[in-house]
Amino acid sequence: MKKITMFHLYDCKYCDYARQAIKELTEENPEYKNVEIDMIEENEHPEIIENYDYMAVPSLFIDHNKIFEAALFMPYETIKDGVKIAFDKALEKIEPEDEDFEEDIHEPCLRFQK
User: Which of 13, 51, 86, 87 could make an SS bond with 60 (beta carbons 3.0 to 4.6 A apart)?
Assistant: First the structure.
């Protein structure tokens, strides 16, 4: 099992969506409760965010690999889908060798852009 690193801001509605999604998903799937999530508030830890490549919050990483990054006007369900993908990747339910791995990881963002 891998740890998720989530970058967020306290006054960000999309980050609130991600926190709500985490709560809902852990209630829906108790296995997700075993996943450690390191919540890093951007303003409190600028020295940490320098080591990650992202433009918006919330952004979720596993082993410095970006799994999900929100965008302006992204609906709650899309953010929840991204958080779920991060949980599944952390539990190693999605393997990099999987044929559709890259598409799965970025699919919530791509679906939003269509």
Answer: 86
Q: Count Cβ atoms within 10 A of the Cβ of residue 27 and give its class: 0-12 exposed, 13-18 middle, 19 or more buried.
A: exposed
pLDDT by residue (tens digit) across 49-99? 999 999 999 999 999 999 999 999 999 999 999 999 999 999 998 765 554
Q: Provide the residue type at 95 as one letter.
A: E
Tell me whether the omega of the peptide bond preceding residue 96 falls within 30 degrees of 0, making it cis.
no
> What is the Cα gyration radius of the chain?
13
* The residue count for the chain: 114
Q: Which of 71, 66, 74, 76 is nearest to 102 (CA)?
A: 66
Distance between CA atoms of 114 and 109, rounded to whole angstroms? Answer: 9
Q: For residue 38, give the H/E element and its range.
A: strand 37-41
